[in-house]
Amino acid sequence: MAEGRGGATQASLAIGLMMIALLLLNGELAKSKEFTVGDHLGWGFNVRNWPNDKTFHAGDILEFKYEKGYHNVVKVDSNGYANCKSNNAISTFDSGYDNITLARGTHYFICGIAGHCWFGNMKINVTAL
Ligand SMILES: *[C@@H]1O[C@H](CO)[C@@H](O)[C@H](O)[C@H]1NC(C)=O
Ligand SMILES: *[C@@H]1O[C@H](CO)[C@@H](O)[C@H](O)[C@H]1NC(C)=O
Ligand SMILES: [Cu+2]
Predict the structure, then answer these.
(1) For 20-24, 94-98, 125-129, which range has the lowest pLDDT when averaged over its residues?
(2) Which residues are close to ligand 3, an ion, with C-beta < 5 A?
(3) If residue 2 lies in a helix (H) or strand (E), which one and from where to where?
(4) Distance 54 CA to ligand 2 centre (A)
(5) Which ligand is nearest to the CA of 62?
(6) Whole-number Å distance between alpha carbons of 82 and 101
(7) What is the pLDDT of residues 39-98, one digit of tens each?
(8) How high is the mean pLDDT of the chain?
(9) DSSP assignment string, 29-85
(10) What pLDDT, on the 0 to 100 scale, is given for residue 31?
């Protein structure tokens, strides 16, 4: 009787370890990715089409790198994006090296410095799957 129970415990332990191993493996495969917005040019003018050839997933991180004080990053809604208006900002970042983790859905970012979004195409939209 005692032996049988021990066997059952060992079996469930082995199954538990296997499940943990699978979870770790899966976590590795689903590891979040970091994207430097604008690649080597960073967050700057004419960045608008940078997202076009990329696929983003929830949990990925956008890194906005730029000269602090010269640009900023304003998360806006689709209307703010279309009209380059930051008065309804969802959040504003200005460290010069801002890391934003993406939730599932479409996100809109513009530069809030006068003219940069409208005349400089300093705006992106990113859809995370
Ligand atoms: C997102 O950006 C792309 C590239 O500039 C553009 O073609 C597309 O219309 C934009 N989407 C929205 C919802 O504004
Ligand atoms: C963003 O991440 C980098 C490292 O990847 C770090 O140096 C920087 O301080 C972070 N930015 C903020 C505002 O925490
Ligand atoms: Cu700017």
Answers:
(1) 20-24
(2) 71, 111, 113, 116, 122
(3) helix 2-29
(4) 22
(5) 2
(6) 22
(7) 999 999 999 999 999 999 999 999 999 999 999 999 999 999 999 999 999 999 999 999
(8) 89
(9) HT---EEETTGGG-S-TT-TTGGGG--B-TT-EEEEE--BTTB-EEEE-HHHHHHT-
(10) 85
